[in-house]
Each structure stands twice: as structure tokens, then as C-alpha cells.
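Observation: inputs received (chain + farnesyl diphosphate).
Thought: call the complex predictor directly.
Action: predict_structure
Action Input:
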Amino acid sequence: MAPYDPQCSDPNVTASGFGDGTGLPQHVAIIMDGNGRWATQHKKPRVLGHRAGVEALRRTVRAAGERGIPYLTVFGFSTENWQRPRQEVTDLMGLLREFVHADVKKLAAEGVKVRIIGSRQGLEPDILALLDEAEARTAEGTHLNLNVAFNYGARDEIISAVQSIVELSSSGKTTIITEADVNAALMTRGLPDVDLLIRTSGEQRLSNFLLWQCAYAELVFQDTLWPDYGAEALDAALAEYARRDRRFGARKDSQNEPTSPARLEA
Ligand code: FPP
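Observation:
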């Protein structure tokens, strides 16, 4: 993880307000679930479910870019996924290698900027090099920001953020901790909050994904198994999002100035 940067003044690190007026989420996050069940349904080995999942990821990245979504974050491998059988972990690492080798050039040409979030600990040196390569070769992209959460866990991320803030605090560099300080200490620094969180395969859990960043996300759960995902399913999720009334704890009809708790006490 890069060191905590208290100077980070990117306006995007704050909540995205009442939206951009187009009804389109600025930041979509996806828990790509159901590869194993898809494989079982198709009487195939699990690895082919994950392989079909990579195809779904390609379709979804393309569709998100075409629809003008600026930020897409996907959950590729969680810190808990190490508990899966060794062969499956090896298969997932192999697929990441394949994805980077096969797709980075094309992603760069399409203006997709790749960023990998997650812990680098425990990853093979060649994977680390590939992740760096993917980021470096797509660094100029301006069309779509694709964030791949790999070896990622939100609680680990929050612990690291707290640790870096404590270090700054004990060195006297900061005393009052703000939301912006925490945003800047997370691996997602510089990204807007998640507007829409999608989980496929009918499961309805966050599974330790972007817990801080999803504070006001709209949650959309779809029955589609991830390998079957693509433009049509994404459009259904976007349509559901557009129907939601986002209030962020406030009331849209309120004409009054916001009242702070201190003013209520006065
Ligand atoms: C959940 O399905 C999916 C994963 C654990 C991995 C997601 C990975 C991909 C879509 C492909 C790899 C992509 C990259 C970028 C590495 P599951 O296995 O939990 O399915 P199940 O719940 O049906 O068993």
C-alpha cells in the first residue's frame, strides 16, 4: 500500500452528493459471484467457470465504458479466497496472469486505466510484476478507470489506514481526523464513493468488499451467475439504480439550512 498522503486534495474523495443529474452512477462496484455454480450447472470443472467469468468481465468492462461509467471496481480475489483448495487458488492466479497478458494492450488502446487494490503480501513475484505492468501500461487511460481488487479485504484496508493515521498522529503531523483523512489513507484514495454495488448469483452479502466506500451505495442483487453477465444485465442494474431515490440521510424537499447537532443543543 502506498503511504498515507494527508495532502490528498482530490475532490473525488468525498461522497458524490446527489449524483451527477444523469441518473448514471459514477462508481460501480461488482462482486462477481457464481462462477462455481455456473460450472456445476454446465457440468464443467470450476476452473472453466472462472474462465467464463473472465469473458464476462471483458463484456462488462466494455459495456461500462460504452455507457460512460467513469469508475468500475471488481472483486477478483479476496483475502479470504486463500482458504479455497490450493488448486483453485492456483487456477485463479493463472487466470489473472492470462488476463493481464492478453488484455492490457487492448485496455490501454481503449483508454482504460487499470489500478490494482489489495495487499501485495503473499503474491508471487511474477504476479506482482504483472500488476505493476498493468498499471504502468494503462496509466494514461482517461475513458474508464478499472480497479481490480485482488488479494483485497476491506477490514485489512481499514486497519492499514488506521495504522498510517496513528503514525502521523503520534509524529504530531495531524490531530483531528477527518473523513477526507481516512479516504486518503485507503487503497481507493482518489476514487469517488461507490454509488452502485452489484452482486450477482442471488447472494446478498458485502463479503468484506469496500465497506467504508459503500456507506451510501445503492445495493443491487441480481440472480444472474457471473459468467452469464454482460451488457443486458448491467443495463438492468443501471435501470434499477436510476429508480432509486438517494437521500444520503437528508431530505431532498428540505428548504432549510442544514442543522448541525451542536445547533440543536444550543
Ligand atoms: C466467485 O465465484 C468468484 C471468484 C472467487 C473470483 C472471481 C474471478 C473472476 C471473475 C475471474 C478472474 C478475474 C480476475 C481479474 C482474476 P465462486 O467461485 O464463489 O462461485 P460459487 O459461489 O458459485 O461457488
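Thought: report the result.
Final Answer: The first helix runs from residue 35 to 41. Confidence is low (pLDDT under 50) at residues 1-19.
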